[in-house]
What we know:
Blueprint: H1 19-26, E1 33-36, E2 41-45, H2 50-59, E3 67-75, E4 81-88, E5 95-102, E6 108-110, H3 119-130, E7 133-135, H4 171-177, H5 186-205, H6 214-240, H7 249-253, H8 292-321
Parallel strand pairs: 2-5, 6-7
Antiparallel strand pairs: 1-2, 3-4, 4-5
Helix pairs in contact: 5-6, 5-8, 6-8
Amino acid sequence: MTTQTDDARPKTPPAPGSIADLYREVLPALDFEADQTKIDVAITVAPGDLHTVIATSRNDDRLSMDLLRNLTAVDWEDAGIEAVYHLYSIRHRHSVCIKVRLTGEHKSLPTITDLHMGADWAEREAREMFGIEFDGHPDPRNLLLDEDLDMHPLLKSHPLVAIEMPQGVDVEYFTKQHPPPKKESSEDAERAARIAAAKKVAAQEKKPDSELTDEERAAKKAAQAERVKASRELAAARRAEGPKNPMGEKAAAAPKAAAPVEAAAAPAAKPSPKTAPTPSAGPQKATADMTAEELAERKQAQTERVKRSRELAAARRAELRGEG
């Protein structure tokens, strides 16, 4: 696997009259770089301009990029991670590639699930494979990996990437011969302690009640009550967040295709009584209508929900395995 960055390769400017010129006409104040790839014209924008660019791409009649063909990422190591969005216009039959370069330890982008429903699973996959956080995503859980796996397999820093593994090699033997570097933090130690406690309780629960001591029987009953409580808290948190459909109230608040991106968003649709979590919950706000404090509170609630979900998943796996 090569380690060179795309900055080392020569770039070809797009031909005059290409989609890049159309973007300059539609967004004259946007600062971006454009180059011609083998398939599409690639436009590189700043992370803060991403949502505006994709919204304008969809809503402006001259662009009408109404199909998200693909959403992926590329790890350029020291140069950062590049998120790549492939857009296509069914109406005009033209396409474009939108790129965003992310550097630093915390890599985040605004979600576009309010613009393209197909971004839901694609953003979840990019999050777990590359470590990109998509702020405002309605359900930021792992899509392919277990909830308690804290790793990103498609990063080039992943321990199995540096050495090519021949087909048929025993994975357990390979990892023993080439152990990955361990950087145990306080969170890792806390997670390991919780998993060990869950394994101990699971081993006790496999015993018949007649073989348990009074202390073990009390601990078993307390652990079961704690799991039920955590499950109910997680279910209540999910109900409080409202519908999981990313095109729910946001679709009603988004402008129509012919409206300019600068037009004011319509008020969010009031959810029906059947979908409202509680009578006092009220309509769900779109991300664009939230204040900074409401956005922070929503993000914290999502983080807590994912943490509780991972803890429950780890406890259930330990219980099924019966590892003591």
